[in-house]
Write a structure and sequence with these properties.
alpha+beta, Cytochrome p450, five-stranded mixed beta sheet, about 55% helix, binds protoporphyrin IX containing FE
């Protein structure tokens, strides 16, 4: 072989080697780029569901997430509730998942929940109809509406409920009554009456059905819930029919049902069935969440006396200015800075909605991981809120952390604080919930002092709640001494 052919051979070999290395490296990086997050799928069929449930049945479910995050990082693969699932404890990843709702991901509820919600509930809607109905819901719970008339209703109904409180009070039950009656008022303009009491009895059974996991369809609670759903739907249908007649005669009310009559559906108006499903889903979405947050705020405050004292001082001043009977005004609500710190901190620590399930509608590559089409994804809000990197002493209830917080800028905790989710499915009731909570706190601290009636503890499965529904012994407070003291200070 001449030196020329030798050079050509060497050149060819070198080129082949370089191409081979490039392809190999590309494949490796591509594989790496497209790899599933690391993790453990656990046992066949059950996966890691049992470990998750037993952790969430205790007061401290954090080790379930902490262990996996320390082993695999903030995005890991697991197998829960019957499916392989990508679990995200990463704020950036969560934001990506929430923002890409309807494009790369869609919300995903099991069939048993869909049966209870009804096909036409907002939680199950997709696409342009979802967009329209989401903004319609927002328009019924936003600041102008709250300021205009909802605040007055909330104030009146919270007060009405608390009027009957004496001795031992099962706080979670009372908070549930309050939120149920508030929502019925907002949806249908009904004040508490025999009809609403009966509706609530059936409705409570429907709610129990949601949480009879993991083997919903086989449980008697679930079957009872389905029957109760039929009764609730029938009761609502009668109201819808009556009100439709009124609407056809040119009468309408300024409530959610009135707004639904005015919407034109898919061009032809909504059917009664569609309206009933929609109303029922709104009842479900705001009921357990807000009432549990109310109860937990009181529990956390009871366990943090300095915070309770500061909250009382803020609310006592407002009450002293208003006098005993006058209702709270919008300006009063806007002038409760420490109460808002308590609300934020309760939402952060309690994490009523611990995270949201989504399903990838196509292959998604994010942060070097591959999420295959059809896979379940769980964006854990809880893991982010309780991470020490995001919040100092993250596992301690500390409402003062929200003081002097500018709420903007890249290092603000607000950037990773998402108790109401985000993106197109961000909770449309977020402002309503804040107002309800603030008014509730105002009336409980100005109206009563209390002590826990029994030891009670927080659990997180099947939902976040206290085991004994937080029983307390209440005593009406006499505000007159506070007012006299304030008057004498002001007179000086
Ligand atoms: C403290 C109280 C509340 C919390 C923590 C809360 C939290 C959330 C979260 C995290 C989501 C997002 C779910 C997802 O992305 O899949 C959501 C959705 C929703 N929330 Fe709330 N919520 C609260 C109160 C309320 C209230 C009072 C209402 C009443 C209007 C409400 C109505 C809804 C509805 C209708 C949705 C579904 C939105 C959609 O799918 O487009 N929520 N909520």
């Amino acid at each position: 072989m001449g030196s020329n052919s030798m050079a050509i051979l060497l050149y060819t070999l070198l080129s082949l080697f370089v191409s081979f290395i490039s392809v190999f490296l590309f494949r490796r990086t591509d594989r790496r780029r497209r790899r599933l997050p690391p993790g453990n799928l656990g046992l066949p069929f059950v996966g890691e569901t049992l470990q998750l449930i037993s952790a969430y049945k205790t007061e401290n479910p954090e080790p379930f997430i902490d262990d996996r995050v320390s082993k695999f990082g903030p995005v890991f693969t697991t197998h829960i509730f019957g499916e392989p699932t990508i679990f995200s404890a990463d704020p950036e990843m969560n934001r990506f998942i929430l923002q890409n709702e309807g494009r790369l991901f869609e919300s995903s509820y099991p069939g048993s929940i869909s049966n209870l919600l009804g096909r036409h509930s907002l939680l199950l809607m997709r696409g342009s109809l979802h967009k329209r109905m989401h903004s319609l819901t927002m328009s019924f719970a936003n600041s102008p509406i709250l300021k205009d008339h909802l605040l007055a209703d909330i104030d009146r109904l919270v007060r009405l409920n608390m009027e009957s409180w004496t001795g031992r009070v099962q706080l979670l039950d009372e908070a549930k009554k309050i939120t149920f009656h508030l929502t019925v008022k907002q949806l249908l303009s009904f004040d508490p009456c025999e009809w609403t009491q009966n509706l609530m009895k059936e409705y409570v059974l429907v709610i129990e059905g949601f949480f009879s996991v993991p083997f919903r369809i086989f449980s008697s609670t679930y079957r009872r819930a389905i029957q109760a759903r039929t009764k609730v739907a029938e009761a609502l249908s009668l109201v819808v029919m009556e009100r439709r007649k009124e609407w056809e005669n040119g009468e309408n009310k300024n409530d959610m049902l009135g707004a639904l009559f005015n919407e034109d559906g898919n061009g032809g108006g909504f059917s009664d069935e569609e309206i009933v499903d929609f109303l029922l889903a709104l009842l479900v979405a705001g009921y357990d969440t807000t009432s549990t947050i109310m109860t937990l705020a009181v529990k956390f405050l009871t366990e943090t006396p300095a915070a309770l004292a500061q909250l009382k001082e803020e609310q006592d001043e407002i009450r002293a200015r208003l006098g005993k009977m006058e209702g709270l005004q919008w300006e009063d609500y806007k002038n409760m800075p420490f109460t808002q710190c308590v609300v934020n901190e309760t939402l952060r620590v309690a994490n009523i909605i611990g995270g949201v399930f989504r399903r990838a509608t196509q292959d998604v590559n994010i942060k070097g991981y591959a999420i295959p089409k059809g896979w379940k994804v769980f964006a854990s809000l809880r893991a982010v809120h309780l991470n020490q990197d995001n919040f100092k002493d993250a596992r301690t209830f500390n409402p003062w952390r929200w003081q002097n917080n500018s709420n903007t800028g890249p290092t603000s905790p607000m950037n990773v604080f998402t108790p109401f989710g985000g993106g197109p499915r961000r909770c449309p009731g977020y402002e309503l919930a804040r107002v309800e909570l603030s008014v509730f706190l105002h009336h409980i601290v100005t109206g009563f002092s209390w002590v826990p009636a029994e030891q009670d503890k927080l659990v997180f499965f099947p939902t976040t709640r206290t085991q004994k529904r937080y029983p307390i012994i209440v005593q009406p407070r006499d505000m007159s001494s506070f007012r006299q003291c304030k008057d004498s200070i002001e007179a000086k």
